[in-house]
Amino acid sequence: MWKRITTFALLLTTLSAVADEPAIAFVNGRPLRKKEVLELLLEAHGLEAMQQLIARDLARQEAHRRNISVGSDDIRAEQRRALDRMMPEQSEDGVKLTDEQKMQALKTILDERGLSMQEFRVGMERNAYLRKIVERDLVLTEDQLRKEFARQYGEKRQIRHIQISARDRARLQDAVARLARGERFEDVARAVSENRTTAENKGLMEPFAYTDDRIPGSIREWAFIHEPGDPHEQLTVEQKVHILRLERVIPSESHRYDDVRSEVRKKFKERIMPLEMNKLITSLFQRAKIKILDPKLRREYEELMRSIQLPGQAGG
Q1: Torsion of CA 272, 278, 279, 284, to 10 degrees
Q2: DSSP-H helix ranges across 66-199
Q3: Which residues of the chain have pLDDT under 50?
Q4: Domains contained in the chain, number
Q5: Domain closes at, from 250, 278, 297
Q6: Is 193:160 a contact under the CB 8 Å cutoff?
Q7: Is residue 43 part of a domain?
Q8: How far is CA 280 from CA 174, 192, 275, in A?
Q9: What pLDDT is attached to residue 20?
Q10: Whether 200 and 165 share a structural domain
Q11: What is the pLDDT of residue 113?
């Protein structure tokens, strides 16, 4: 008898808890509970959302540790940078876009990527903290600026490439066979290259100087000892085969270093800031003690940390 009473009491408690759980909608009179929606959101976007929040909190904690303050103006400035980077200055008919139009375009892009405006704002807040920290520590030497001057104003080369994994022999043989049959390099690059960014531009890379460390050194060496019209060649770089063809030589611009030093410094800083911010957040993740209580999210997080070679420290 006592066992039946206890079981009945437990059932009443459970039903009461479910009944007390807030409904966020009613479907033909049946309540749709908040818990159901949260469980679905966790399943679909839990790991990504948690990563964003962890990264923001790590950046915020590091800024506070260094007595660096970030305000709403800093976050808005970060948002403007993102808009300027992601959006064109003019519409297709040549009319200059307003900030409101850029924001509307941004919402469309976020919708297409399955991201909310709130997630975007979390990312902007994180970046504002990271930027403030990096800016305080950043030191640009005269040697770095002179190399950047050569990168910006020195002679440049522009190449087309077809990039294929060294392990994908079938794809590589297909590309070589197509070129041997006389197919246009541009068409083969678009169809076969694994680098989808340049493939969409028919294999054409941005012009680069001999000192441009964004380009692997062996590719720079190749480009600066060849001339337009030379036959294409294969070059293997870090498990990637590049079929290369030199497109054009861009002569150096006649500027004195002292006359453009401030502009060189500004552009160099803009270029390296995202790299330094990424290094910082990676370092903060590596040093952080992160304990994730939800078992499913903990497993997913630990798997992610292993995949990007960070020491996952999620505890049980």
Answers
A1: 150
A2: 72-86, 99-112, 117-137, 142-153, 169-180, 185-192, 196-199
A3: 1-18, 310-316
A4: 2
A5: 250
A6: no
A7: no
A8: 42, 36, 9
A9: 58
A10: yes
A11: 76
